[in-house]
Design a protein that fits this description.
three-stranded antiparallel sheet; single chain
């Protein structure tokens, strides 16, 4: 979760990819889908402790460097776990927590949840992109656009917006008095109006369309 890892990336983490610095753990991801290597840190004290406890359970006679190995009856075996077992971990967790539809939790949950939570915490495009190791910005942009943080920012912008007071500016209106009447007619560019009291008003528009009004 901390590294937004794919199943294959978790599968290929080796003991030589792990480094301890002060109270943190740094992990290198060297084998990726798009050949972009990256590194992530685990800083939460509880998580650091759990990782260290898991490492301490490794049998001394183990002959490979794979980090994740089988765990049965309170003991770790020498056999590394396969990609399908890694993919089933989210479903196992969801079942343990009594979450609805646990079968919908796939091996991609770790990666998707990590990127989503980072975006929700305000991670920008470059941070999210580098965290997940994406070559294209499109995927990272999707996580940001769909994040709750982004939606709240947009909502706040809209709630603080003020009604527009701008008006459209046009040519000044020319007012003409029709003789022997008290009717005031406004002449607009491109429109000719001929009117008198109790008469017909004819409006001619540029496209030769004529509108006749009976007053």
């Amino acid at each position: 979760y901390s590294g937004a890892c794919r199943r294959e990336e978790l599968l290929n983490i080796h003991m030589t990819d792990i480094a301890h610095t002060d109270n943190n753990i740094l992990i290198r991801i060297t084998k990726t889908k798009n050949n972009i290597q990256r590194q992530f840190a685990i800083s939460n004290p509880r998580w650091v402790k759990l990782v260290q406890e898991y490492i301490n359970l490794r049998p001394q006679q183990i002959t490979h460097e794979r980090l994740f190995i089988n765990y049965r009856n309170g003991y770790c075996t020498v056999q590394p776990i396969g990609i399908n077992t890694i993919g089933q971990v989210p479903r196992t967790i969801a079942t343990f927590l009594n979450l609805p539809n646990p079968e919908s939790f796939t091996g991609h949950c770790f990666r998707r949840s990590s990127a989503s939570h980072l975006a929700n915490q305000g991670g920008d495009l470059i941070t999210v992109k580098q965290h997940g190791g994406w070559k294209s910005s499109a995927v990272a942009e999707g996580y940001i656009e769909q994040s709750q943080k982004k939606k709240l920012v947009v909502a706040e912008m809209l709630s603080n917006s003020q009604p527009s007071t701008s008006t459209l500016q046009g040519p000044p209106l020319q007012k003409t008095m029709i003789s022997n009447t008290t009717t005031e007619i406004d002449h607009l560019a491109g429109i000719s109006v001929h009117a008198a009291e109790n008469s017909v008003v004819t409006i001619k528009v540029y496209n030769n369309c004529t509108i006749t009004l009976f007053i």
